[in-house]
Design brief:
It is built from 9 helices and 4 strands, in the order E-H-H-E-H-H-E-H-H-E-H-H-H. The protein has helices at residues 15-23, 29-39, 49-63, 105-117, 127-135, 141-151, 161-175, 212-218, 222-232, and strands at residues 12-14, 46-48, 125-126, 158-159. A two-stranded antiparallel ribbon has the order 1-2. It has a two-stranded antiparallel sheet with strand order 3-4. The protein is elongated, with a radius of gyration of 21 Å. InterPro entries: EF-hand-dom_pair, EF_Hand_1_Ca_BS, EF_hand_dom, EH_dom. One of its GO terms (molecular function) is calcium ion binding. This is EPS15 factor.
Length: 233
Amino acid sequence: FSPQVDSANAGRVLASDAAVFLKKSGLTDLVLGKIWDLADTDGKGILNKQEFFVALRLVACAQNGLDVSLSSLNLPVPPPRFTDTSSPLLLSGTASSDVPWAVKLEDKAKYDAIFDSLNPVNGLLSGDKVKPVLLNSKLPVDILGRVWELSDIDRDGMLDRDEFAVAMFLVYCALEKEPVPMSLPAALVPPSKRKPVSVPGAMPLIPPSTSTKESHQSLPPVGILAAKTPLTQ
């Protein structure tokens, strides 16, 4: 029972503490609210150890595209992922750089062919170009909206080759009647988009400065710094 959550060591978790912790799962408030309602069986706003484990299990279900319901509790799912590396019990979503990409090579070749046929500009497709392809699947608009949200990983309103492959993968999953997950599972994040695991205590490239103008004058651009660091190490 993690000291991060049960700070008073009382064997139970208050709603406020649990909310902060569960938010690190990356799920929406709506989904987390549903998870809490199912886990807090007596409606007291406090979870005991058993109820807290139910909440964690439901988080894992939601992250892997399963329904948030008590019937999903018996299904096999990987452990829940939380964006916090300070606890050895928790798997950070970013630590999954070793997980093989869920998009198979032969499928990627098909998706790349579709991508190229849509005339990408500088290796990117705008939402206007992707939209007809998504609508062509005849999936409900809310599902397609979620597919777009999940596949536009860097949130720039455009899809690159890898992001487009994620979108196509999710569309085909939905067509096979598999639910589209609420948050992108680690295995679906393209290797090119996976963040390296940050080393605790690593120095940031640019120290925080009170005035941005100062930092621009006293430091070379980030690109140059990044290029120099291997030599200085």
